[in-house]
Amino acid sequence: MMLEASGKNGGQIGGAAPGSMEPIEVIGGRLGINSDEMVPFGRYVGKVDYERVLGRLGGGKKNRAKIIDVTGITPTRFGEGKTTAVIGLLDGLWRLGKRTTAAIRQPSSGPTFNIKGSGVGGGLAQCVPSSELSVRFTGDIDCITNAHNLAMVALTARMQHERNYDDDVLAGRGLKRLNIDSGRVQMKWVMDFCAQALRKITIGNGGKMSGVPMESGFAISASSELMSILAVTSDLRDIRNRIGKIVVACDKNGGEVTTSDLEVDGAMSAWMLDTIKPNLAQTMENRPVFVHAGPFANIGIGQSSVIADRLGAQLGDYHITESGFGSDIGYEKFWNLKCRISGLRPAAVVIVATIRALKMHGGGPAVRPGRNLSREYLEENIGLVEKGCENLAAHIDIVKKSGVTPVVCINAFETDTKREVETVRKFAEAHGALAAYSEHWAKGGGGAQELAEAVVAACEEDDSKFAFLYGVKVPLGERIRRIATEIYGADGVEYVGRAGEKLQELEAESDLKGYGTCVLKTHLSLSHDAGIKGRPRDWRLPVTDFLIYRGARLVVPVASNVELMPGTGSDPAFRRIDIDVDKGGIIGIS
């Protein structure tokens, strides 16, 4: 069986019992959030009226707190514990007397009910109530799913009516013919599960009253442009404006058909009305955690929200925020997209690493769901750790390139040996990073003291050398080249099929010059190929397509084959999830 981080038996430590949690008004009050600025969802979760809080505190566009981003090395398929590290660091900083807030991303039901499990932390470093956070929560992802699918409903219904009725009938119903091209629909349907059988489907079968027959499919909800919009939006007016610019399809002349053209943008905004308010929960040590926006930096922006960060930056002396997967995609997007949008700047960046992942990058056997760990991961092997540290070096270099001090968090597993840990520590320090061994999974904030002290030291030596990888006037092709060569370590970029022509078209479009660049690629390698571990050399990044998110204001290069709908494995977590019919509540989520 896979051994969990830390813990003497490698098992799962359950979430906090209700009696140990505090009412959410108490958690908010401790931060200075007034009771009339909270919208409770039960006793232990609430939404925050951020406009009232920020209005009272002065807007939130400047750092009051020291900002700490948590990212990681290239992970195994199980992840290396970034969220757990966020929670442990939060609790650890409070134990040092530092008033601290944190922002994590809401778990997706896809991983929760599949292989990876929930994304609320683990052991004694969890965000609670963990079951509620993992299932339904305050409904944000459900609202994104419904708002997105409403756009598809509007599109497919409009296509049917335009096929069945002439212009006079359409005009009598207040509609102008949009001439939608069924072969150029830009969106898919979404659902918050991993459902590979729905990646490609045919819809519209059943006659002229059942829609227009065409190829379609499903993506996971976190990949929706609406999730990216939620991550970067600033206020209600901004999100309403962005939703109206989402491109759903093209017409037969190649022109864009937006949600505004379909007159569905207002109704979509109604679904999104309350999602913009950040959710507030707590750690097992009763510390405040904002939970807002969603995961998957490999298929989206993958960041906790700008609004949550602005709140945290005003309410604490330190604010920890989370980026998805490794620094090559998660931190790069935080650095060059989110920081540019929010105006906030990091004082330190935590890179979460595990001995297990480093051994994998050093040439250890594949770490696969449903299989026992090979002996290389259970016994001391300094050679594999040393070789695997090349991957760690790449991530340290990425963070240093932004001008920020990296802190390597060696996330403790029970199979770690002292010599393996010291090997990583010495390597990190030799490469210009601070390093700390952290036992937060097994010991909570008390086990994260070394990490917390290292982060404080990094923040105190912050001398504001932060700089973006590229300026806003840098052309799209040059941005992609810099990301590929300076972040991923590629020798260059190759444009496959029509991608080269699309690049020229996009560079010629003046409206796109202010857009951010959000590359989609695998999270399992620094390269585009998930099977290549370590620090790949002598390769080129293949760009196969471009997506345009006009609402999120992002140009999205697609690197190789990236699926927007993950698949469910052969031993999914849903086999072990149930309800407690005697006490109520959900059991089996880990």
The helix tally amounts to: 20
Total domain modules = 3
| Rg value | 23 Å
Question: What's the count of strands?
Answer: 25
Question: What average pLDDT do the residues reach?
Answer: 93
- How much of the sequence is in beta strands? 15-25%
Distance between the termini: 14 Å
Principal-axes shape call: globular
CATH class of the largest domain: Alpha Beta
Largest sheet: 12 strands, mixed
* Helix-strand category: alpha/beta
Look up the CATH topology of the largest domain.
Answer: Rossmann fold
Helix content: 25-40%
Question: What's the architecture of the largest domain in CATH terms?
Answer: 3-Layer(aba) Sandwich
Low-confidence stretches: 1-18
Quaternary structure annotation? single chain
Find the CATH superfamily of the largest domain. P-loop containing nucleotide triphosphate hydrolases
Summarize the structure in words.
By secondary structure, the protein is of the alpha/beta class. The chain has three domains: about 20-140 and about 275-460, Rossmann fold (3-Layer(aba) Sandwich), CATH 3.40.50.300; about 140-270, Domain 2, N(10)-formyltetrahydrofolate synthetase (2-Layer Sandwich); about 475-560, Formyltetrahydrofolate synthetase, domain 3 (Roll), CATH 3.10.410. The strands form six sheets. Strands 1, 2, 3, 4, 5, 6, 14, 15, 16, 17, 18 and 19 form a twelve-stranded mixed β-sheet that branches. Strands 20-22-23-21 form a four-stranded mixed β-sheet. Strands 7-12-13 form a three-stranded antiparallel β-sheet, with helices on one face. Helix 2 crosses helix 11, helix 3 (about 80-95) crosses helix 18 and helix 15 (about 380-400) runs parallel beside helix 16. The model is unreliable at about 1-20 (pLDDT under 50).
